[in-house]
Amino acid sequence: MLYPTPIAKLIDSFSKLPGIGIKTATRLAFYTIGMSDDDVNEFAKNLLAAKRELSYCSICGNLTDEDPCAICQDESRDQTTILIVEDSRDVSAMENIQEYHGLYHVLHGLISPMNGIGPDDINLKSLITRLMDSEVEEVIVATNATADGEATSMYISRVLKPAGIKVTRLARGLAVGSDIEYADEVTLLRAIENRTEL
Ligand SMILES: [Zn+2]
């Protein structure tokens, strides 16, 4: 169907979002046009501000609007433990259960031999640098229970163990292939409590 250019462009923008097909994109575009001027302005402003004001913490890689992020700056947190996650959404999931009080390291991806993604393609080198001269005693690998999550966890364990750092992995409370981001609080809590040494 042929639409006036402005709405065609809007449909195109929406359709670039994950999980949004052309049908949903069209519905969202028409909905947006029906919104009040104030709401549309607010929406556009939030999009731009999120993109402009957020960056990745230079220490842990978490998404933040200040550098270092609030977690890295918080000296009351346990400085001897680092929990390693795939992305910032996993940090939020962990913080929500309020049971973990250590530090984080965000990988922004996983090692994936199948897709040719190696250790240098994710935020791993900064972890090694970070661990030198640090008080860190334990690294908890909290990557998802997928093949790539396993490959990443194996690699981290192989690199860190010779340095005398205890490397643990979240317990198998999480179903294979499941996402930490979507795990319920009880499951996540149990997975941390029952973590196993690699
Ligand atoms: Zn940080």
Automatic annotation (TrEMBL):
Toprim domain ranges (all copies) = 80-175
At the top level, the lineage of the source is Bacteria
Stored InterPro entries: DNA_Rcmb_RecR, Rcmb_RecR, Rcmb_RecR_Znf, TOPRIM_dom, TOPRIM_RecR
Coiled coil regions in record: none
Zinc finger regions, C4-type = 57-72
Q: Which CDD domains match?
A: TOPRIM_recR
PROSITE patterns to which the protein is assigned, alphabetical: RECR, TOPRIM
Q: Which UniProt keywords apply?
A: DNA damage, DNA recombination, DNA repair, Metal-binding, Zinc, Zinc-finger
What is the recorded function of this protein according to its Swiss-Prot or TrEMBL entry? May play a role in DNA repair. It seems to be involved in an RecBC-independent recombinational process of DNA repair. It may act with RecF and RecO.
Q: Which family does it belong to?
A: Belongs to the RecR family.
- Name this protein carries in UniProt: Recombination protein RecR
Q: Which organism is it from?
A: Streptococcus panodentis
